[in-house]
Amino acid sequence: MPSYQISGPNPNVIIPDAGPILAAVQTAANREALVVGKPNTPAYDYICRRWKINPSRTIMIGDRTNTDVKFGRDHGLRTMLVLSGCHQVEDILENQINEREDMIPDFYADCLGVLIPQRCKA
């Protein structure tokens, strides 16, 4: 997990990601955390129990290759990266170069709106 992310209107501002925040809580609590969020298996196990999903008919859609896409790939789901968020096509290419197959989506789209069928005008 990256220790920071660059986001917002000012690309020179570095915003801490979950890693440093988790490290601070672990230090204060003086114990190791049990991480259950994406891409970890406890999150997948909960989703499967709660909604009884069929992995062969389920697609994981998200805007991050290192959490959303990895989560889907690690658990046998098809994946789609939405480019309106954190990661872009350049990140997919970088993952290919670095042989990070677990972070390469099956599909990608500019935004979720591409999933809505357009009505033909007569």
UniProtKB/TrEMBL annotation:
Membrane topology field: Peripheral membrane protein
Intracellular or extracellular location(s): Cell membrane; Cytoplasm, Cytosol
Superkingdom of the source species: Eukaryota
Keyword line: Cell membrane, Cytoplasm, Membrane
UniProt GO molecular function: phosphatase activity
Tagged with keyword DNA-binding: no
GO cellular component, one term: plasma membrane
Entry-linked SUPFAM superfamilies: HAD-like (SSF56784)
GTP-binding among keywords: no
Name of the molecule in the record: Phosphoglycolate phosphatase
Organism for this UniProt entry: Panagrolaimus superbus
